[in-house]
Design a protein that fits this description.
By secondary structure, the chain is mainly α. The chain is built from nine helices and six strands; from the N terminus they run H-H-H-E-E-E-E-E-E-H-H-H-H-H-H. The structure holds zinc ion (2 copies).
Amino acid sequence: MRSCRRLFLRCLRLGHRRKCRFLSRFLDHLRYARLCVVSLAYNSFTNSDVIIDSLFEPIYWLVDHLTRWFGIVFVALVILLTSSIVLIVYICVLPLIMQTYSTGWICWHVGYGHWNLIMIVFHYYKAITTSPGYPPQNNLDIPSVSVCRKCISPKPARTHHCSICTKCILKMDHHCPWLNNCVGHYNHRYFFSFCLFMTMGCIYCSISSRVMFREAYTAIEKMKHQEKEMLRLAVNETYNDTPPPSFTFQERAFHKCIIYLWVLCSSVAVALGALTLWHAMLITRGETSIERHINKKERKRLQASGKAFHNPYSYGRCQNWRIFFGVEIDQHWITRVVLPSSHPPDGDGLTWSAPSWIQTPQKSVLSI
Ligand SMILES: [Zn+2]
Ligand SMILES: [Zn+2]
């Protein structure tokens, strides 16, 4: 009996030893596999941001491709909607103005309306066809502050990489799907002017057609009421006895066009007006949309250590606007801002002159 018990215990110990050996071997293999994976994927620049970016890479890819393709649709939509509004103004609003208004008001509407239309068309055409500006390719001898990780080429100050255009853009502001183009150094003015004149045009159309809109709205309500009455009558009476509609097809189309014009213009005026004001604020501060976020972070960081942040690309509120519009002499406010102008922007977008508050230009200051 005792010998049997000893044999059983010995077997148990042997089984336990084998299990331990198998487990330790398995763990060794696991450690080796982990070491292989880590050594193959090792990158001294890897940090939490890179890992998060890598995880979100498929979503970025999808958004970038969709934006690239939808850009064409958005441009077509802008042209289509603007053309429809212009057509309605020419067919419905302008003849009414000519019939009812005095000569002075007719001159104002015809003059202002056409000037605004020319400014919108000119700036939109220039904004979509003008290249935003790229750093010179195959030239490593350009003033740069860093290297683009995507293009593997020198990146000048204020230049950023656009993942939709897959290029580095000089003084990049943002990629605009409504232009299907990036907004950068060479077309920033065209983009802002388009937003400004489009907002002005929408406000003008909304104000000019506000009385017509009220009348059209009342007429449409009346129309709906009449249609209900007619349906009620049609049920009770024969087809021949049904009274003819008091509104003709032309009248119905006219009222609906006026409502479409007013609703679209008012909505665009509010949305685009807010965007234009935002960009006007950025121009006053001498910042781009991207720099706004960078400078905000920098301002907080310096504030924590009791220091003040100064934007190295701000030359003073008024001067920022003059530089933005390319106003060198006072007449340029008329010839370059109020009238269509194709003049190039100030500078080449590669280097930036230091503002007067920087007594001794420091390279590090201009390295955003
Ligand atoms: Zn790049
Ligand atoms: Zn872009």
